[in-house]
Design a protein that fits this description.
Layout lengths: L2 H4 L1 H12 L5 H15 L3 E8 L10 E6 L4 E6 L1 H6 L9 E11 L4 E11 L2 H17 L17 E6 L4 H13 L3 E6 L7 H14 L11 E6 L13 H9 L4 E5 L7 H5 L2 E2 L3 H8 L3 H36 L3 H39 L3 H47 L2 H5 L4 E4 L16 E6 L2 E7 L18 E3 L18
Parallel strand pairs: 3-5, 6-7, 6-8, 8-9, 9-10
Antiparallel strand pairs: 1-2, 1-4, 2-3, 4-5, 11-12, 12-13, 13-14
Helix pairs in contact: 6-10, 7-8
Amino acid sequence: MNDAARDPQANAQGNAQGNAQEWSVSELSAALKRTVEDAYGFVRVRGEVSGFKGASPSGHVYFRLKDDRAVIEAVIWKGVFGRMRVRPEEGLDVLVSGKLTTYPGSSKYQIVIDTLEPAGVGALMKLLEERKKKLAAEGLFDPARKQLLPFLPTVIGVVTSPTGAVIRDILHRLGDRFPRHVLVWPVRVQGEQSAGEVANAIHGFNALPEDGPIPRPDLIIVARGGGSLEDLWSFNEEIVVRAAADSMIPLISAVGHETDVTLIDFASDKRAPTPTAAAEMAVPVRAELMLQIAALGARKLACWQRGIEQRRKELTLLSRALPAADEVLAGARQRLDACAERLPRALRANAQLHRTQLTRASAKLSPRLLRHRLERGHEITGALGQRSAWAFRVAFDRRTQRVQSAGQLLAAFSYRGVLARGFALVRDAAGVPLRTAASVASGARLDIEFADGRIAATAGEGATPPTAPRVASSKPVAKVSAKPPKTGGAGGGQGDLF
């Protein structure tokens, strides 16, 4: 008997293995994927976010959900992640919903998340505290960044829902206290898109030009009514907090009731407990201002009247210390009367004095005296004329001697003196002096100047410069031209020795 007959169970197992369906890896992975997705098409899972590093370059987000005993991979696609109101953060306890699927590339199962929210108020508070610490470390809550609110803004910008009771409360309170021009930037104050709209509204008000068609607000109020922590969560988003901190226009945050605290309250320039209180902070009470101005006007008038009265009293007291006008003028009147009495005698004495001086001066103006002064003037004039004629002759003689000396010096330096001693000056046809025999070509026309005149000559054949003194040769070197002799110049002026 063979082994198969002896062991029926082993035989049955062998037949089962031989009849089993054969799967490829891809087919098995696809079958598992369909099974998991059909069985777990929608699940809600609670766990702690682990390994979160932000969005990948493609925009998708990958992390893990864990508890104390297990870990599951999680993925959020790009479009879903962009719409999320609360986004995952490392260590955050969350409650997610989605579908379970597998990833064949690594034989792992994962949850594709559609919604994500903190698991209870405690998780939200933990996330809020961590975000608050992060933004505070960046200096966004620094009191030095906060601006002073304008005393009486001309235009007020309000960022809130245009249909809620908040905007009506703000407008009503502004109308009661001090009506102002209000610009409303409508936004959603709750939901996934609320944070982006609020941040864009703050940036939009700051981007308005000061002289544009839409007036730029002098003050911004970000307002919302009360609600739960989840309802107010949009005002805890970083994008809203950073927009409030970067606003160049003073900003009042009025989100929720007095007990509600959001992160925008720390970044704003002023926090109001309610939207109505924000309107009260924005403008003063007009009636109170008018009463205050009237009171200040009355105080100013009273002060002015008291000052005038005080000065009137001081003037009265000073006037009492002054003497009477008759007493002050009495001495001057007496001096005037005394001068009036002495004036006729002084006039007569003055006239007599001038008459005496005139008589003395007239005695000096006799004809004899005038004639003597005239003769004296003639004598002085004659003496001056003789002196000027003598000075002219002396100057003329000196300049004549200088001219004669210059002429003698000129004659001494003239080349004609050299010619008078037996020398001659030889020039070429152009009148240029010839200094060497080598510069004279055969047949060249020459001009020879002697002391008593000039003659024209032609250089002979084979003329060579002399190398040593020799006796006169019988061979003619130059022949006299038939031309008449030339003189030294039309004016007989000084020539050139060379």
